[in-house]
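G., the chain you wanted modeled:
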Amino acid sequence: MTAYMKLYLSLREKITGHIYRFGQKLPSKRQLAEESGVSVITVEHAYDLLSEEGYVESRQRSGYFVIYKETDAYPVGRTHSPKGRGTIGTVPVEQREEGERDLFPFSQFAKTMRYVLSMYGDKILDPSPRKGCLELREAIASYLARSRNMAVSPSQILIGSGAEYLYGLNVQVLGRDRIYALENPSYEKIRKVYEANGVAVELLSMGEDGILTEELERSQASVLHVTPFNSYPSGITASASKRAEYIRWAKERDGMIIEDDFDSEFTLLSKPEDTLFSLAPEGPVIYMNTFSKTIAPSVRVGYLVLPPCWGEPYEEKVGFYSCTVPVFDQLVLAEFINQGHFERHINRVRRRRKKREQQEREMVY
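Predicted structure as tokens:
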């Protein structure tokens, strides 16, 4: 791990542990560099990450101040979002490039398919294990550890054919007698799938950094379905304070959070936002993601990451289902990830989008 990431994690822990409290000024870059035995540039990188994620803010000629708190996300009078965060009015998802198809490494994908056919032979004709092939679950677990700071076991991962199918599994396990709260606005299909599964849905209005605190407090729901990064269609990304608020909300009412991490890989921030799951790995968060955005909409492969305590309930209630993704598709994805092609593709897209954003800013100025 790089020096600035170690420092970032140390500072984040001190902020969330209230050693550095809301409104408190952090040490100057030079002072912290001397105390930590690192360079001023290392401290600057760590402070920039904390600023991007909404833990601190830089005030001109004054230094860095803590803005993280586990109640309302912003202090009274704050009118702007942390650097790099989405706000209402950003470009809708359907107007963005669908996976930047011209950048996708088709030749490598084709080679991976041929490799799987020759390497695995008639194994591709076998039925899939019910939770998905171990090869793909291991590849996803390794990828999440590298990219999302999520230390999970392959046994916590469940593979399914796309988001809608996984929504349905969640309902069958969590129960139809609960109220499910959604962001308002949110992706319309989420509400339709839940209602088709016979559950009551409650829509909670969004502010500039996530669901409004007063909306969470008045809600009667015990399941909260959120897209903390780049929520569709608002483009809002939840701040660090708001993420902590979601987790506290679920714990206080013995509820659950379904974290829909759609589109997170293509963030233009220096590092991907912390997932709710990584902030509460033993807590009330079910993480889900798909490859429909990162590879192509035709790749109907998604996955759930379950907290350790929820493995048994899922096994009891939906463990009899066969995996809905063909073995061949799973093995191709596993090899595509393991050989590094998947992350290289994501990095190519991020570089192009970052360059495009810089060009657009230059045109404005």
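The longest strand covers residues 200-207.

Shout if anything looks off.
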